[in-house]
Amino acid sequence: MSDAPLLRLRALEQVFDTKKGPVAAVGGVDLEVKAGKVLCLVGESGCGKTTTARAAAGITRPTAGAVEFRGKSLTDMTPGEKTAYRRAVQYIHQDPYAALNPTRTVASTLTAGLKRHGLVKNRTEARAKAAELLTLVDLTPPESYLDSYPHQLSGGQRQRVNVARSLAMNPELLICDESTSMLDVSIRVSLLNTLGRLRDDLDVGFLFITHDLAVAKYFAWDGEIAVMYLGKVVEHGPTPEVIGNPQHPYTKALIGAVCEPDPDLARANRSSEQLRSAEIPSLTDLPAGCAFHPRCPAFEPGVCDSTEPALEGTGAAGGRRRVACHIVARDQRRESVQHAQSRDDRTLVLDPNKSPGAAWSA
Length: 362
What we know:
Blueprint: E1 5-18, E2 21-34, E3 38-42, H1 49-56, E4 64-69, E5 72-73, H2 79-88, E6 89-92, H3 106-116, H4 123-136, H5 155-167, E7 173-177, H6 185-202, E8 205-210, H7 213-219, E9 224-229, E10 232-238, H8 239-244, H9 249-256, H10 263-272, E11 312-313, E12 322-323, H11 326-347, E13 349-350, E14 360-361
Parallel strand pairs: 3-8, 3-9, 6-7, 7-8
Antiparallel strand pairs: 1-2, 1-4, 4-5, 9-10, 10-12, 11-12, 13-14
Helix pairs in contact: 3-4, 4-5, 5-6, 9-10
């Protein structure tokens, strides 16, 4: 399998004009999704996750930056290439109740796209394909669901129909926008397992959006996590690294908010990163410097409130770990210097055959 990214976002920006002035919902995001891999986009409500996803799906046109699919920007695609892109990239919405047309049966919902793109020849073939899709998402026997209307289905069943509809186009990338947040825990795990099987068996890539780091850990353990705050990515790296060794104070706060069955560990997590404030700054009046500094427990005056930190590599996880924090970057530099000095001290040894004036040799 090629290492080339399936989807790439380059300096993606999305600015909305409002009565209070321009609002930068997304402020320069660089991300990649590879075939058969999962990238989880996590953060609080209003941080820009859905806006980023909608731009990646081609639903909205970004104000600046580029969305590239298999190395080609959406703005440079021919009409035929854009049609192929829209088939290859499918979107699963958050609300399973609002995402389905209440006047259409399940069979009608699943076959609409197939008929539109000429992927089936007749009604019999379309119905057979719809039954195949329902079987793929564990709605069996499919005959029990084909002629049902959305109001006759549970929330979990509706969301599986949404997943089946997205698979009708044989997608290469699924964008899941909080697609499990409205489901019960048991149904949520079952749906995540279904999506994981599709990822492994069909080599489908995922841009998976969630505010729940526990879900991100479960679904994207072999993938990557990008943590967003007020329209910017503040930490990005392999899931085991981000979950097991968070660097940015905001990521630490998110992990501390995850429900932990061990009371001692839960208490330690909560006490380790107490936010200075629970209030999120307004996008129309962002603070100077690091946007997180009014809430950050590691805040240092004159440093965090002076300039905006860049999203820089930390050297960990094979160079795939990036963090946007002045304090973390400074500590990393200090550790690098100390490590280099310690290594030099270990390699310098006293040679007894030389005079004291020339006693050191590597």
